[in-house]
Design goal:
It is a single chain. The chain has 79 residues and is mainly beta. It has one domain (2-69). It is built from no helices and 4 strands. The chain has strands at residues 2-6, 10-21, 35-47, 57-69. A 4-stranded antiparallel sheet has the order 1-2-3-4, with no helix packed on it. The chain starts with a strand and ends in a 10-residue tail after the last strand.
């Protein structure tokens, strides 16, 4: 999902993307083996007039990612 707009000398964008899975493995004692991921991004731009003798622009961009993975180690076991 995103929202944004731009005008003559300013522009902005805010965006989020969230996805995940419950996994496919069966884990002893319950729980899922999937993951959840959330990505966030914001951008802001300010610039001089497009017809200016010297065109300049400044862009600020920041992002954050959050991931929770419930994967387990299914390696060697003691015999």
């Amino acid at each position: 999902m995103n929202v944004g707009d731009s005008y003559k000398n300013v522009g902005y964008l805010a965006e989020t993307f969230q996805y995940g899975s419950e996994g496919f493995k069966k884990i002893d004692h319950g729980g899922n083996s999937g993951f959840d991921r959330k990505d966030y991004l914001i951008k802001f731009r300010i610039n001089t007039n497009p017809g200016a003798k010297v065109y300049q622009s400044l862009t600020f961009k920041a992002g954050h990612k959050d991931e929770r993975a419930n994967e387990t180690y299914m390696g060697l076991t003691q015999a």
